């Protein structure tokens, strides 16, 4: 059921909105932690470095509604602002981003509203990240409501770039000098290059370790065969 807040009293309905979206952050946060733990159990490494969750401030929600030409009402907030509940998932490698996204959207209670792949198609600013808008069911005492959550998944390096660019954007109120914008686009390219090199380094290390483990297992197998044949010889005596 789509979440429709009770709008008879503005303060109560804002509290209801906060309750529902906070619950949605908890649900998605727990799902991500479970996936990370299971991944560690199976593959011996954590794809998620860390997770940040936040509820958008009422001021930012009103600003977004204004930007899109909507009146500032509680109904409009819930209907038109997709990132009241926002989760940022920071991964080590680009490949982890797609793994996490796939594992999450394959869960039967998650409905995907939109996917924006700014890794394949970066923004003109140089911004890279993988964005999902999903809904998750929230079980209230008398009904189940679907709450929207914006999930941004990116690498540590992409996050470093985005945080700095965000600060610069706000410092110049969106009108940074051209040479700074150009420099940021160049830094974004360096970030992509760094991510690609770190991924290939990680793949190489993983292959090397797998190779060593295979050699070790082979050696141990041979040792075992030798000691078993020793036993056979002793039994023959
Ligand atoms: P904040 O303060 O982070 O919440 P929308 O405006 O959300 O209705 P849009 O613009 O199509 O629709 O959404 P998009 O492109 O998916 O971007 C949503 C969020 O992504 C932004 O939220 C930012 O957090 C982040 N983002 C998008 N583009 C950039 C960028 O060029 N640089 C940085 N640093 N972050 C970006 P908000 O609400 O704009 O901001």
Task: Describe, in plain words, how this protein is organized in 3D.
With 237 residues, the chain is an alpha+beta fold. It is built from 6 helices and 5 strands, in the order H-E-H-H-E-H-E-E-E-H-H. The chain has a 5-stranded mixed sheet. A hairpin with a 4-residue loop joins strand 4 and strand 5. Helix 5 packs antiparallel against helix 6. The longest helix has 59 residues. The termini are far apart. The model has no long low-confidence stretch (mean pLDDT 92).
Order of neighbouring strands in the sheet with most strands:
1-2-5-4-3
Quick one: how many beta strands? 5
CA radius of gyration is: 25 Å
Question: Spans of 5+ residues with little confidence (pLDDT < 50)?
Answer: none
Q: In whole angstroms, how far apart are the ends?
A: 80 Å
Ligand inventory: ligand 0O2
* Binned strand content: 15-25%
Q: Mean pLDDT, rounded to whole units?
A: 92
Largest sheet: 5 strands, mixed
Order of helices and strands: HEHHEHEEEHH
Overall 3D shape: flat
What is the helix content?
55-70%
Helix count equals 6
Structural class: alpha+beta
Strand and helix map with partners:
Elements lengths: L9 H34 L4 E8 L2 H10 L6 H7 L4 E7 L2 H12 L5 E7 L12 E10 L4 E12 H16 L6 H59 L1
Parallel strand pairs: 2-5
Antiparallel strand pairs: 1-2, 3-4, 4-5
Helix pairs in contact: 5-6
Bound molecules: ligand 0O2.
Ligand 0O2 binds next to helix 5.
